[in-house]
């Protein structure tokens, strides 16, 4: 517990110090430029350049961390940010400030990526949502506190620039005390913006709009306050209320988004933001400050929520395997909006006055509401239960998403020890020695055994079956993890591993084969058939039925975790029918039970399974007639009895599926219609009127 808590505390400490400095810089720069009388268009351009640097930082940060490591990149980034703010404190020059602002954006993005990726290595599958939430609170808490540091010294001097630089430099100290190495990283590719827009136009527009609106408001709010004679501690309250609103409102809005149609919630809260935005300029002079602070916090809080709402809306329409790649594109989209926002806001204020900032926000939001209503008209909403969960988050400036609980969890791959690297280095020349070293290493460091085995499996000279057998004897509790690691790194070895498992008969080879199937899902049918053949030959029908039930339950668990987009592509009903066809070919007496096991586990597959079962019986009947086994009459009676019994079982446990399954049976074998109809009418679970609906099926 302490070994996990200590690195978390060090990283969170570095994060809060860094964002204290960044929060101070965020309010200091526009106030300083306003005091110097800099033209509003120049202010907008300089402030927008932060997002340009942030965009490039998001693109290249992971590649830099792969090359140099987490601590070095964080230290370099903090140093760049500190130098940038010090340069701006020396003198005002638009080009110098613009370049320094872009460098700061790049540095903060890289530092945030280093922190977040390191956190993903410390977090586990069970606590990553809490770690993500804590990280967001720490970052926004530091940013919030930075708003009040502007009162520590006069804006006219250089002292505040020095304070911001000292904080950014000091952020290196806690994280440098962390002895734990960060996880291995891969430089993932982003999903095409065109593909993402075609998949979820509303998600992209919402994220882009969040960048435009929140960046224009947060960057230009100090100038709005200055033009309305708000300064000093009151200025900090104004900008702090915007930050606080962005933190607090995510929780009630997230609750509503998970309980109701998300797009309806978006329209409602955006309409409220129009009211609060229009009210703010009216309240600035004639009402107590707390009233205006409330409207600013409400406006900014709602606009900030557009980012997680847009992410959730996008995830609704994507396959699970596309979600990680989509996050890179979404963050880049937010950054693009953040480039546009400050400049647009500054131009509006330059030509229409300070109060026009909020009128611009209200007008933009009104257009966004019309777009959302259009999308509601042209695309049907998902059922609320199928909506992707709302996860409170800021636009994090990073492409690390391992902490997002909606994404599939992968155990972070920590750097291998010197002993493990030695085993890999000798694998080509001495594969036997490498396997023995792997056994010793697994005994001492079981948490890294799967990673080592995965690397060894990539070596051509290594016999993966022997390697797996050796590891199974050393760390049997990791049998599934090691099997998945081998197949994931060397898919071509899957069949060899399955054959070894079947021949050597480990106690739970059925479960291991299903685990391997998940690593190479396109070969599931092949592996299931190999296992079923072995079971039917050596252990008989009873064991085969048990295996069929395991397959069905495993598939049901997998389907239950699938998102709507994945279900539409994977078509589990057809896969279920294919597996039933494979399994029923191995037995005649237990075919009905196997088919029912699948329907019982996956009721939605009843039609497809019924079709596969009828086809298998039809083939059996034709073969029997060709071979002269039994008379055609007795064979037909056997088929009728089997199908009637099959439908009766479904009617007892899943009456809502029985009618469709019965209709499919009658459609394929019309001569069994009377028996099927009688079975349904005799079932108390099935309504007689509904059962009669299949009575019009064609008769032979």
Give me a quick take on this structure.
The protein contains 32 helices and no strands.
Structure write-up:
- By secondary structure, the chain is mainly α.
- It is 76% helix and 0% strand.
- The protein has 32 helices and no strands.
- The chain has helices at 2-36, 40-68, 70-90, 94-122, 128-146, 159-170, 172-176, 193-199, 201-227, 232-248, 250-259, 262-286, 289-316, 320-352, 356-378, 418-425, 431-444, 449-457, 464-474, 479-489, 494-504, 509-519, 524-538, 541-560, 564-570, 572-584, 591-601, 606-627, 632-653, 655-668, 673-681, 688-691.
- α1 packs across α9, α12 runs antiparallel to α13 and α18 (449-457) packs parallel to α20 (479-489).
- The longest helix has 35 residues, at 2-36.
- The chain is flat, with a radius of gyration of 32 Å.
- The N and C termini lie far apart (72 Å).
- Mean pLDDT is 84; it is low at 621-631.
């Amino acid at each position: 517990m302490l070994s996990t808590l200590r690195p978390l505390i060090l990283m969170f400490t570095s994060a809060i110090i860094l964002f204290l400095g960044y929060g101070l810089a965020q309010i200091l720069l526009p106030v300083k430029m306003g005091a110097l009388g800099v033209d509003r268009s120049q202010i907008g351009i300089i402030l927008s350049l932060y997002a340009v640097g942030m965009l490039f930082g998001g693109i290249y940060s992971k590649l830099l961390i792969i090359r140099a490591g987490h601590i070095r990149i964080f230290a370099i980034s903090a140093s760049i940010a500190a130098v940038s703010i010090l340069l701006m404190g020396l003198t005002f020059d638009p080009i110098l400030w613009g370049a320094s602002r872009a460098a700061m954006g790049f540095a903060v993005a890289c530092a945030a990526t280093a922190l977040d990726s390191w956190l993903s290595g410390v977090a586990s599958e069970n606590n990553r949502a809490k770690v993500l939430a804590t990280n967001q609170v720490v970052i926004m808490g530091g940013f919030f506190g930075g708003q009040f540091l502007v009162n520590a010294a006069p804006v006219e001097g250089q002292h505040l620039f020095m304070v911001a630089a000292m904080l950014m430099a000091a952020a290196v100290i806690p994280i440098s005390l962390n002895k734990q190495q960060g996880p291995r990283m891969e430089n993932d590719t982003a999903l095409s913006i065109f593909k993402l827009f075609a998949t979820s136009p509303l998600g992209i527009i919402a994220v882009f709009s969040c960048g435009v609106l929140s960046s224009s408001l947060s960057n230009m709010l100090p100038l709005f306050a200055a033009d309305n004679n708000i300064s000093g501690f009151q200025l900090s309250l104004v900008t702090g209320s915007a930050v606080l609103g962005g933190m607090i409102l995510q929780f009630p809005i997230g609750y509503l988004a998970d309980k109701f149609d998300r797009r309806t919630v978006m329209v409602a809260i955006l309409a409220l933001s129009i009211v609060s935005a229009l009210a703010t300029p009216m309240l600035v002079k004639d009402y107590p400050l707390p009233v205006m602070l409330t409207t600013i916090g409400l406006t900014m809080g709602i606009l900030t929520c557009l980012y997680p709402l847009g992410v959730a809306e996008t995830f609704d329409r994507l396959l699970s395997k596309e979600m990680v790649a989509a996050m890179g594109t979404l963050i880049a989209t937010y950054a693009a909006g953040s480039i546009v926002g400050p400049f647009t806001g500054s131009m509006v204020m330059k030509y229409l006055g300070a109060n026009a900032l909020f009128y611009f926000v209200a007008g933009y939001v009104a257009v966004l509401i019309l777009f959302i209503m259009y999308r509601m008209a042209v695309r049907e909403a998902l059922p609320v239960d199928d909506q992707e969960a709302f996860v409170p988050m800021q636009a994090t400036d990073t492409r690390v998403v391992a902490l997002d609980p909606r994404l599939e969890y992968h155990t972070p791959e920590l750097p291998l020890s010197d002993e493990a690297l030695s085993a890999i280095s000798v694998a080509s020349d001495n594969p036997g020695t490498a396997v023995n070293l792997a056994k010793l290493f697994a005994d001492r460091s079981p948490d890294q055994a799967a990673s080592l085995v995965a690397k060894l499996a990539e070596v051509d000279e290594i016999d993966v079956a022997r390697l797996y057998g050796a590891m199974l004897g050393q760390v049997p509790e990791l049998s599934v993890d090691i099997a998945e690691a081998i197949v994931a790194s060397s898919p071509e070895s899957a069949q060899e591993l399955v054959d070894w498992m079947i021949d050597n008969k480990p106690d739970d080879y059925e479960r291991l084969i299903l685990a391997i199937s998940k690593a190479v899902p396109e070969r599931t049918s092949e592996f299931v058939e190999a296992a079923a053949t072995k079971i039917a030959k050596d252990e008989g029908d009873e064991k085969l039925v048990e295996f069929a039930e395991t397959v069905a339950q495993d598939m049901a668990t997998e389907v239950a975790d699938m998102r709507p987009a994945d279900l539409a592509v994977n078509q589990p009903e057809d896969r279920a029918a294919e597996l039933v066809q494979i399994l029923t070919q191995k037995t005649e007496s237990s075919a009905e039970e196997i088919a029912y096991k699948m329907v019982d586990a996956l009721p939605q597959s009843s039609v497809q399974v019924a079709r596969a079962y009828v086809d298998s019986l039809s083939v059996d009947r034709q073969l029997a007639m060709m071979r002269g086994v039994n008379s055609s009459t007795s064979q037909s009676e056997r088929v009728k009895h089997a199908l009637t019994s099959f439908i009766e079982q479904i009617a007892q446990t899943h009456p809502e599926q029985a009618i469709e399954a019965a209709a499919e049976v009658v459609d394929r074998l019309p001569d069994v219609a009377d028996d099927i109809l009688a079975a349904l009418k005799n079932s108390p679970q099935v309504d007689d009127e509904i059962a009669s609906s299949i009575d019009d099926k064609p008769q032979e």
